[in-house]
Design brief:
- The complex is a heterodimer of chains A (about 575) and B (about 200).
- With about 575 residues, chain A is of the alpha+beta class.
- Helices cover about 25% and strands about 15% of the residues of chain A.
- Among the domains of chain A are: about 90 residues, Ubiquitin-like (UB roll), CATH 3.10.20.740; about 200 residues, Rossmann fold (3-Layer(aba) Sandwich).
- Chain A has 15 helices and 23 strands.
- In chain A, strands 15-14-20-19-18-16-17 form a 7-stranded mixed sheet, with helices on both faces. In chain A, strands 2-1-5-3-4 form a 5-stranded mixed sheet, with helices on both faces.
- In chain A, helix 12 links the parallel strand 19 and strand 20.
- The longest helix of chain A has 15 residues.
- Chain B has a domain of about 90 residues: 2-Layer Sandwich (Alpha-Beta Plaits).
- Helix content of chain B is about 25%, strand content about 10%.
- In chain B, the strands form 2 sheets. Chain B has a 3-stranded antiparallel sheet. In chain B, strands 1-4 form a two-stranded antiparallel sheet.
- In chain B, a hairpin with a 6-residue loop joins strand 2 and strand 3.
- The radius of gyration of chain B is 28 Å and the shape is elongated.
- Classes of the chains: A alpha+beta (about 575), B alpha+beta (about 200).
- Chains A and B meet through loops of A and strand 2 of B.
- Bound molecules: iron/sulfur cluster (4 copies) and FE2/S2 (inorganic) cluster.
- The site of FE2/S2 (inorganic) cluster has 12 residues of chain A, from loops.
C-alpha cells in the first residue's frame, strides 16, 4: 500500500521563492540533560515535485512555437503541441468531452469531443488532435452538433439515469452535456443492460458500474498519479465494466480524487455518499490545513457545516489533486465540538469580560507563549507581539508528524510550521515545554491553538496555573486549560499560512464565526491592549500587512474587496469532473 | 393628453359628523340579511358548508385537485416510496421540508432516514408534489391540517406522513421501457468478486 512508503522527497534548497522571508535557523536548547537535542523542524524550503499536469490551458504565445489556426472563423495562435480542444477553449468554446482531463494522459475513448477539420473526411476527436498551421476547425456546425447528440444518445443507451439518487446529480458532466447538446427523449425500447449497482471497491470508494460511461479517467489516474493501477476495464462491448484488478482494493492514499474526476456518479465517496445534495452546497476557495504542502482546495459547506473538501487547480502546489487524509480535515469543523463561548474555571463569560479577566490574571506572571504551527501567520505574529510585551518564553506546538510520499503529502502535518517559526523567532524545544509546565516553571501559559500532543501529566498540571487557550474546538488540551477563549476556526476568517515551499497560502471564511468566536489574531490583540501593549491592528489589518510583505496580489484584492470571499453556491458552479 | 380634474367635496354634513345615522343604516342592512337568511327556506343566498353535520361530506365540496395535508406513499413491501432525492425540499418555497438520507441497501439505494414537514410553515403550494420524481409525496388527503395544541404537534415526521399513505401503483421510471423490472438480472459473471 502506498501509505507505507517512507518519505523520499528531496529537500534541496534550490528553489526558494524570492518573496519568502528567511526561516530562522534551528535553535539550540539552553540546557541539555533528558531533553532531546534535535532542534526544531527542518525548515529549509522544499523543492516540491512539480504537480503532474500534462495538459495545461493554452496561453497566448508568439515566436517559433506559435501555431496559427482558425476555429469557427476566428484565428487563434497557440503553442505547438496544444490540442484543438484547449485551443478552442481559448476562444471560449467549451467543446463537450468526457474522457479528456487536463491532469491525465489522453485516451480519446469517449468521442464526445468530435470536431470537423477541413480537409479531413471524418470528424476528429479534438482532445487528441494537435494543432497545425492553417488548420480550419468547426466546433459548432450541424454535422458536429449531430455527432455530439448521437454520441450522447449512445452513452445514455444503458445509463440508468437515476439522477434522483445519484450523488453526482447537480454537478454531473453527463447531465450538463445532455442539457446543452441533446435534450431529446429516449428511443430505447429494449431492456437496459444491468450491472453491479453498488460495489465496495476500496477504503473510501463505492462503484456503481451502471452509471460508469467507461471514460477510463479513473483507470488512468491510478496508473499515472499514485501509480498503483488498481482499476481496470474488463469485458467488451455493452458488457464492459470498470472493476478492481484481481486481489486489489482501491486503497491508495489519493483514491478520492477518482470521485472528483469521474464525469458521472459511478464512483462515490463513502464519506460524502447521501450526505447532502451537491446543489445545496456553497463553495469557498481555501487551503487544506492537513499538512505543510497546503493544497488549494474548495470547502463545500451548508448552514455553517462543512461537508467535504475538493481540490482546486493550482499549478505551483498541488496540480488538480489532494490526498485522502487532507479531505478529512473538515471533520475538525464539526459544530458539535465547537468552542462557542469563553469560559474561566468552568464558568461561561461574555467575551469582553473574559478578555479583561484573562489580562488581569496574566499581568506580571512568568509566562510561556506557545505558538502554533496550525494557526495562521497573523495569529502567530500577534502572539509574538504579546510575548515581546510580556517577556514570555516561546515554544511552538503542532501536530505530530505523519506519513509522507513523493506526490503531495508532507510528513509535517501542520500547515504553517514555517510561518509559526518565522513569527516566533528564537524558540525553545517542544519537549522542554512539557517538562517546564510539569515542573511548575511557569505561572502562566498561553496556547495559541488546541492542536498538538501534550501528555496527561502536563494536562493535569495545567489546571493549577493560569493556562489560557485560544480554542476553536473542545479536545483534551482545551478542556485541561483553566481559561478557554473561543477562537474562529480556519473556515471562519481570512488568514494565511506559509507552506513548505515558502509560498503564502490563503484561507477564506466559509461562514461567519458564530457566537463569541473571533479570529485568534483579534483575541491576542485584545489581550495585548488590555495588558497595556501597543495596538497591532485588527486581524484584517494584520493580514494586509502579510499580503503586502509577500506582495500577494490575490490576498490584497481580497482584503480590499471582500466580494470574492463570499462563498459561491455550487448550483451555479457547473459541473466538476 | 388632457388631464381632467374631478373635484370632490370633502365637506361633512352635520349628520355625517354625528355618525349615528350611518351606524343605524348599517345595522338595518345586517338585520335585513339576518332575517332573510334565517327565515327563508333553503338558506337564502348563503352557501355555507355545514362542517361536522352527519349528512355533510366535506370532500363533495372540494375540487378534485384540492391540496390537503401531506402524505407519503408506500412501496409494495410497505416501505417508504421516497428515495430522499431532496427535489421537494429544494423546490419548497417555504423551506419546510427537512430530509436526512440513509442507505436503503438494495438497488434503490437511498431512503429517507427522517422526513419532516413543518405544516405551519407550509404555504400549501403543492410544488413538492409536482417535483417528486417517484410519486412519493402527495397532498390528496382532502384533509386540512387539524389544529394542534403546540407548534411541535404540527411538525409531521416520516411515520405520521406514512400513516396517511397507501401503496402507490405509479410506474417508477415513467413511461417507456421499464428496464428495472423488464431487464434481465445482472449477469452473474458480474457478481464475481476477486476478493
Ligand atoms: S451520473 Fe449524472 S446522469 Fe447519471 S444518474 Fe448520476 S446525475 Fe444522473
Ligand atoms: S468510473 Fe467514472 S471515471 Fe471511471 S471510467 Fe467510469 S465514468 Fe470514467
Ligand atoms: S406544499 Fe409547498 S410549501 Fe408546503 S411543503 Fe410542499 S412545496 Fe413546501
Ligand atoms: S421529491 Fe419525492 S422522492 Fe424526492 S425527497 Fe421529496 S418525497 Fe422523497
Ligand atoms: S474527450 Fe476526446 S475522445 Fe473523449
Amino acid at each position: 500500500m502506498a501509505d507505507t512508503t517512507p518519505p523520499k522527497r528531496s529537500r534541496s534548497s534550490a528553489t526558494i521563492p524570492p518573496l519568502a522571508p528567511e526561516p530562522p535557523p534551528p535553535m539550540s536548547v539552553p540546557h541539555s540533560g533528558p531533553i532531546p537535542v534535535a532542534m526544531g523542524p527542518d525548515l529549509s524550503p522544499v523543492d516540491a515535485p512539480a504537480p503532474h499536469a500534462p495538459n495545461l490551458p493554452a496561453e497566448p504565445i508568439e515566436g517559433e512555437d506559435a501555431v496559427s489556426m482558425t476555429i469557427d472563423g476566428e484565428v487563434v495562435v497557440v503553442r505547438k503541441g496544444t490540442n484543438v480542444l484547449e485551443a478552442a477553449k481559448r476562444l471560449g468554446e467549451d467543446v463537450s468531452h468526457f474522457c479528456y482531463h487536463r491532469g491525465l494522459s489522453i485516451a480519446a475513448s469517449c468521442r464526445q469531443c468530435l470536431v470537423e477539420v477541413e480537409g479531413m473526411g471524418k470528424l476528429q476527436p479534438s482532445c487528441q488532435l494537435a494543432v497545425q498551421d492553417d488548420m480550419v476547425v468547426h466546433t459548432k456546425n450541424d454535422r458536429v452538433a449531430q455527432a455530439r447528440q448521437d454520441m450522447l444518445e449512445f452513452t445514455l443507451k444503458n445509463h440508468p439515469i437515476d439522477c434522483p439518487i445519484c450523488d453526482k446529480a447537480g454537478e454531473c458532466t453527463l447531465q450538463r452535456h445532455y442539457m446543452d447538446h441533446d435534450q431529446s427523449l429516449t428511443r430505447v425500447d429494449v431492456a437496459k443492460i444491468r450491472k453491479p449497482k453498488h460495489k465496495d471497491i476500496g477504503r473510501e470508494i463505492v462503484l456503481d458500474a451502471e452509471r460508469c460511461i467507461l471514460c477510463s479517467r479513473c483507470v488512468r489516474f491510478c496508473e499515472e498519479l499514485p501509480q498503483t493501477g488498481e482499476l481496470t476495464m474488463i469485458r467488451r462491448g455493452d458488457r464492459e465494466i470498470l472493476d478492481i484488478a484481481d486481489g486489489h482494493r482501491l486503497d491508495n492514499a489519493y483514491s478520492i480524487n477518482v470521485v472528483d474526476i469521474c464525469p458521472v456518479g459511478a464512483l462515490t465517496s463513502k464519506d460524502f455518499r447521501f450526505a447532502v445534495r451537491a446543489w445545496e452546497l456553497r463553495a469557498t476557495e481555501t487551503t487544506c490545513p492537513g499538512c505543510a504542502t497546503g493544497c488549494s482546495v474548495e470547502l463545500h459547506s451548508k448552514h455553517e457545516q462543512a461537508y467535504r473538501l475538493v481540490p482546486r487547480f493550482d499549478a505551483s502546489v498541488n496540480g488538480h489533486w489532494m490526498c485522502d487524509e487532507g479531505r478529512y480535515t473538515y471533520k475538525e469543523l464539526d459544530p458539535a465540538t465547537r468552542t462557542r463561548f469563553a469560559s474561566i474555571d468552568g464558568r461561561q463569560l461574555p467575551i469582553a469580560q473574559a478578555l479583561a479577566a484573562t489580562a488581569k490574571r496574566l499581568q506580571g506572571k512568568k509566562t510561556a507563549a506557545v505558538f502554533s504551527s496550525t494557526a495562521t501567520n497573523e495569529a502567530n505574529r500577534a502572539l509574538a507581539a504579546l510575548a515581546d510585551h510580556m517577556g514570555a518564553d516561546r515554544f511552538v506546538l503542532g501536530r505530530p508528524p505523519g506519513k509522507a510520499d513523493d506526490l503531495l503529502r508532507d510528513a509535517d502535518k501542520n500547515p504553517n510550521t514555517r510561518g509559526a517559526h518565522a513569527a516566533a523567532g528564537e524558540v525553545r524545544h517542544e519537549a522542554e515545554l512539557s517538562l517546564q509546565i510539569a515542573g511548575r516553571a511557569y505561572e502562566a501559559v498561553i496556547f495559541l491553538d488546541d492542536e498538538g500532543e501534550v501528555s496527561g501529566v502536563v494536562r493535569s498540571s495545567l489546571s493549577s496555573l493560569t493556562s489560557v487557550i485560544l480554542s476553536d474546538r473542545r479536545n483534551a488540551l482545551s478542556d485541561a486549560c483553566t481559561i478557554r477563549l473561543p477562537a474562529a476556526s480556519w473556515a471562519e476568517h481570512v488568514g494565511t499560512y506559509t507552506n513548505r515551499q515558502g509560498r503564502l497560502r490563503v484561507i477564506r471564511p466559509a461562514w461567519r464565526p458564530e457566537d463569541d468566536r473571533h479570529p485568534r489574531a483579534e483575541l491576542v490583540r485584545e489581550l495585548l491592549l488590555a495588558l497595556g501593549g501597543r495596538d497591532i491592528g485588527t486581524a484584517r489589518e494584520q493580514a494586509r500587512a502579510v499580503a503586502e510583505e509577500y506582495e500577494h496580489e490575490e490576498l490584497l484584492a481580497l482584503l480590499t474587496d471582500p466580494q470574492p470571499t463570499r462563498p459561491r453556491l455550487l448550483r451555479f458552479g457547473n459541473s466538476r469532473g | 393628453m388632457t388631464i381632467t380634474v374631478k373635484k370632490v367635496s370633502l365637506k361633512r354634513t352635520a349628520s355625517d359628523q354625528i355618525y349615528l345615522p350611518a351606524i343605524l343604516k348599517g345595522l338595518v342592512t345586517t338585520a335585513r340579511h339576518f332575517f332573510k337568511n334565517t327565515l327563508t327556506k333553503g338558506m337564502g343566498d348563503v352557501d355555507t358548508i355545514r362542517y361536522g353535520e352527519p349528512d355533510v361530506n366535506v370532500e363533495d365540496y372540494y375540487p378534485q385537485r384540492f391540496r390537503g395535508v401531506h402524505r407519503l406513499m408506500h412501496r409494495d413491501d410497505g416501505s417508504v416510496r421516497c428515495v430522499a432525492c431532496m427535489c421537494c425540499s429544494t423546490v419548497c418555497p417555504a423551506r419546510c421540508i427537512y430530509i436526512e438520507a440513509e442507505d436503503r441497501g438494495g438497488d434503490e439505494e437511498k431512503a429517507p432516514k427522517s422526513f419532516v414537514i413543518d405544516e405551519l410553515k407550509c404555504v400549501v403550494c403543492g410544488f413538492c408534489v409536482e417535483a417528486c420524481p417517484c410519486d412519493a409525496i402527495r397532498m390528496d388527503t382532502k384533509a386540512h391540517m387539524h389544529p394542534t395544541e403546540t407548534r411541535a404537534d404540527a411538525v409531521l415526521g416520516k411515520l405520521d406522513l406514512m400513516k396517511r399513505g397507501t401503496q402507490s401503483v405509479a410506474h417508477q421510471g415513467g413511461v417507456g421501457a421499464d428496464f428495472r423490472t423488464a431487464a434481465p438480472k445482472a449477469d452473474p459473471r458480474f457478481e464475481h468478486d476477486p476478493r
